[in-house]
Amino acid sequence: MNCSVETSAKHVHLPEDVYKILFGADAEMTPVKELTGGGAFVDAKRVTLVGPKGTAERVAILGPYRPLQVELAKTDARKLGVDAPIRISGDTAGSAPIKIVGEAGEYDAPEGAIVAKRHIHIGQEYCDEIGVKKNDIVQVKITTDDRSLIFDDVVIRVNPGSPLMHIDTDECNAAGLPGTVEGEIIVK
What is the pTM assigned to this prediction? Predict the structure, then answer.
């Protein structure tokens, strides 16, 4: 079975109270771009991330509101000087601290910076078709002209919709991907 493979650049997810600390008590998220599946969007506002060794400016905020999480590639984490562990999205307990700066204020997050483990969002009907379930590990083969490769340790995340794999910018660059591509799911 094939899946779309999209690159997810560094971004943050914010709860409403932190958003208001960063942008003011009356601030509300304003969608400027819808994302593939699930009702997620890119917010009009951006933040700056500050770590012990550096900063990252104009970092996208993804809405809607949800628990605080800063998703980085390992290269981003090194530039900032944060020890962001590779984790499934949402698993931020004990992850790296980071400062988030907005137009109206800043927030010292005691944890929340991670490198998101590569994963596939896949509907239950597709899971049934290929014989996988939530948290199973598969491989995804990407065929390109110059840098074909097989991603291992890809986690299944059951969500409505067609199969969609998310990788970070380091993984995208390693494969030399030109944008969204098709990959082949290989069940072990």
Answer: 0.92
| DSSP label of 85 | P
3-state secondary structure 22-68: HHCCCCCCCEEEECCCCCCEEEEEEEEEECCCCEEEEEEEEECCCCC
Topology of domain 119-187, CATH: Barwin-like endoglucanases (2.40.40)
- Supply the Cα-derived Rg of the chain in whole angstroms: 17
**How many Cβ atoms sit within 10 Å of the Cβ of residue 49?**
23
Read off the pLDDT of residues 160-172 as tens digits, 9 standing for 90 and up. 888 999 999 999 9
CA distance 114 to 92: 7
Domains of the chain, residue spans: 10-116, 119-187
